[in-house]
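Translate structure to sequence.
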């Protein structure tokens, strides 16, 4: 059976206010955990609120756009939590919840439905994903979209897609504090690999792809990412982005024009640079230039 199959039948009445842009029935099973579904929802134009509802399974939500108020509970126990891009929410089974928009841009929300042993004992948790993890989640979703073209039978593409879903869920659960962060100790064999990656990234031209950079380091990209992630907590792409962000901040302090900074970093379009910088830091270059300190 493939790792997903199409199904857009929802029992919850609240789903009438939402259009699924991406939907996969997963049924990934591990001891104590079953990942039911993953979907990407956009609120319909006429929708300003999703009324209170609940599910008999747990949910992890990640808001990828829009702002609003996530309401949890009923009556005197109801609480409201401000939602923005990068907000992660864990809802245990049976938790009544609702949502109200607070701006005209329609919310975009990633939803993971799961059965998790012990989930009923958990409380609702809300956290904010850091910019590096948020960028990685977006890359994973892009990869999952590409795997849609190979959705028959069980093969390497389906296995890798299932792995991406579990990585994504792991990142969200760690940000919520539902699972602890594994202690990282850079092993002796990994140290030369990390040093080589840092050295090559420092001198690599901007036009080189990550695959080409991995080749210069001497490893296949997927294997190199696993080594770097274990040793430093970052993939090759994240290390490159982190390095470029620091270089961008230094240049923003030194140069007067943002367009000059973009050109220095190899961005042909200053607007694209501004969007990239905001994705990495949560601020536009102009905002950081006027008040950024880190």
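Result:
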């Amino acid at each position: 059976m493939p790792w997903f199959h199409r199904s857009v039948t929802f029992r919850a009445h609240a789903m009438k206010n939402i259009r699924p842009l991406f939907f996969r029935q997963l049924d990934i099973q591990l001891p104590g955990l079953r990942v039911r579904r993953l979907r990407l929802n956009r609120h319909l134009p006429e929708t300003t609120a999703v009324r209170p509802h609940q599910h008999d399974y747990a949910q992890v939500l990640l808001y990828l756009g829009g702002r609003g108020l996530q309401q949890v509970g009923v009556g005197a126990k109801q609480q409201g939590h401000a939602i923005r891009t990068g907000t992660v929410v864990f809802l245990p089974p049976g938790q009544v919840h609702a949502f109200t928009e607070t701006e005209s841009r329609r919310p975009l929300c990633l939803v993971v439905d799961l059965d998790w042993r012990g989930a009923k004992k958990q409380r609702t948790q809300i956290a904010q994903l850091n910019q590096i993890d948020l960028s990685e989640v977006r890359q994973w979703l892009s990869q999952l979209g590409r795997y849609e073209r190979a959705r028959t039978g069980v093969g390497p593409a389906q296995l890798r897609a299932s792995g991406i879903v579990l990585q994504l869920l792991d990142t969200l659960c760690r940000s919520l504090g539902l699972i602890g962060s594994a202690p990282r100790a850079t092993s002796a064999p990994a140290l030369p690999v990390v040093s080589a990656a840092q050295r090559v990234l420092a001198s690599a031209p901007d036009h080189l792809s990550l695959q080409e950079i991995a080749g210069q380091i001497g490893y296949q990209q997927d294997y190199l990412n696993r080594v770097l992630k274990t040793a430093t907590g970052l993939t090759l792409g994240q290390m490159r982005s982190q390095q470029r962000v620091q270089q961008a901040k230094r240049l923003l302090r030194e140069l007067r024009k943002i367009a000059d900074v973009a050109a220095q970093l190899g961005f042909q379009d200053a607007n694209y640079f501004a969007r990239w910088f905001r994705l990495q830091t949560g601020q536009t270059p102009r905002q950081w230039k006027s008040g950024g300190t880190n």
